[in-house]
């Protein structure tokens, strides 16, 4: 049942990209004719460059701090895991390779379809990585100006992207070898999603951008941690290790982004506090919110509903992450704020209980509704309860 208030906080987008040859079952969205890659729908008012130009100086002055305190949170390539370490070794004699593939298929055989919906959705989210690098490079004062800039902010973003790139690679190959999912539909979904982009409402503003990434990295840490637990319970310890290993990368990335916001709160308390409030007012959009497979206009909402039902990522997690960040950044205890900063503090620090209360009411309504099945193209149109 789709009871999540916060996993799908979006108004239904009014346009999305699609292949004009593919017939579309319309529900609540309208599609512009011949829109092959329509611009993503704007969820927020299109505010751009909302950071006052003089604040760019703050990020310049923090470059050496970033080099000393943020870059060390990356792992050197030779100490990083690589996807092949978790996969059947294709260079060994064919019999041995096929034995390893058979073992993989036996391990995944008992995992339920609903688990695969969530794992595929997570993999697709990871695979839209070009969108996230693009998003970070929209941020004033920290973007990679040349594509190979030696600026520490840019170095972080490139190396972060390179670390993240292994996540989608590994999950995609594992899913491919499992034989449980329709890879062609998954590939189409990735292509649609990268074409559509995302709209997190970060306004080219690195204050907003780093609040967003702090939240998002923790959300992916939680979500991959839960898919690890479910894989273990479902009889696939290798997949559990894969998801757990990805989760530990997310945790390290979360630490970096949280540290950056912590520093901003130190050097510009009211500016940073206002940014936290601004992002929370908008609600943190999931990065794959424009997901589409050419068939289901509500694909993201359906995926999010299954994730909520399995407890992989829930509205409670959303409130937990907010509370964690409030504690980690010591927002309740911050003093010396301007009037605007104090109002932002009051809003942020009172938000989690309000979210939980709203969610309880949404859950109550959802309980009264009949559960229904939704067909997922990723699973050869098998029906899964949402
Ligand atoms: Fe990731
Ligand atoms: Fe991540």
From TrEMBL:
Segments of this protein annotated with the region Disordered: 1-50
Any Gene Ontology biological process: fatty acid biosynthetic process
Main location group: plastid
Residues engaged in binding Fe cation 2: 164, 217, 250, 253
Sequence positions that bind Fe cation 1: 126, 164, 167, 250
Cofactor binding: number and manner: Binds 2 iron ions per subunit.
One MF annotation (Gene Ontology) recorded for this entry: metal ion binding
Bias-annotated ranges (Low complexity): 1-15
Database matches in CDD domains: Acyl_ACP_Desat
InterPro entries per the UniProt record, alphabetical: Fatty_acid_desaturase-2, Ferritin-like_SF, RNR-like
Subcellular localization: Plastid, Chloroplast
Keyword set, alphabetical order: Chloroplast, Fatty acid biosynthesis, Fatty acid metabolism, Iron, Lipid biosynthesis, Lipid metabolism, Metal-binding, Oxidoreductase, Plastid, Transit peptide
This protein's record includes keyword Isomerase: no
Needed co-factor(s): Fe(2+); Fe cation
Family under the similarity heading: Belongs to the fatty acid desaturase type 2 family.
Official protein name in the record: Acyl-[acyl-carrier-protein] desaturase
Organism: Deinandra increscens subsp. villosa
Upper taxonomic lineage: Eukaryota, Viridiplantae, Streptophyta, Embryophyta, Tracheophyta
């Amino acid at each position: 049942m789709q009871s999540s208030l916060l996993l799908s906080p979006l108004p239904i987008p009014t346009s999305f990209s699609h292949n004009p040859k593919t017939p579309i079952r319309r529900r609540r969205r309208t599609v512009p004719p011949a829109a092959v890659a329509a611009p993503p729908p704007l969820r927020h008012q299109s505010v751009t460059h909302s950071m006052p130009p003089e604040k760019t100086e703050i990020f310049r002055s923090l470059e050496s701090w970033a080099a000393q305190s943020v870059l060390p949170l990356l792992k050197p390539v030779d100490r990083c895991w690589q996807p092949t370490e978790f996969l059947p070794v294709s260079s060994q004699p064919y019999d041995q390779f096929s034995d390893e593939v058979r073992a993989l298929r036996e391990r995944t055989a008992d995992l339920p379809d609903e688990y695969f919906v969530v794992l595929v959705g997570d993999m697709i989210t990871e695979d839209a990585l070009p969108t996230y690098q693009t998003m970070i490079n929209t941020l004033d004062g920290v973007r990679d100006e040349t594509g190979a800039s030696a600026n520490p902010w840019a170095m972080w973003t490139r190396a972060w992207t390179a670390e993240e790139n292994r996540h989608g690679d590994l999950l995609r190959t594992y899913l491919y070898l499992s034989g449980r999912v329709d890879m062609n539909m998954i590939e189409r979904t990735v292509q649609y999603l990268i074409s559509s982009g995302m709209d997190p409402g970060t306004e080219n503003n690195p204050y907003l951008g780093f609040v967003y990434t702090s939240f998002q990295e923790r959300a992916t840490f939680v979500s991959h941690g839960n898919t690890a637990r479910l894989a273990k319970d479902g009889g696939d310890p290798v997949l559990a290790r894969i998801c757990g290993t990805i989760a530990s990368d997310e945790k390290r990335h979360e630490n970096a982004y949280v540290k950056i916001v912590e520093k901003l709160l130190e050097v510009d308390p009211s500016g940073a506090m206002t940014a936290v409030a601004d992002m929370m007012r908008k609600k943190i959009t999931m990065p794959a919110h424009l997901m589409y497979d050419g068939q289901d206009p509500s694909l993201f909402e359906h995926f999010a509903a299954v994730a909520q039902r399995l407890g992989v990522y829930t509205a409670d997690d959303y409130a937990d992450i907010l509370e964690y960040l409030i504690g980690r950044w010591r927002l309740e205890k911050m003093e010396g704020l301007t009037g605007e900063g104090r109002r932002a503090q009051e809003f942020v620090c009172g938000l989690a209980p309000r979210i939980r209360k709203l969610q309880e009411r949404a859950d109550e309504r959802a309980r009264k509704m009949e559960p229904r099945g939704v067909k997922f193209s990723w699973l050869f149109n098998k029906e899964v309860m949402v």
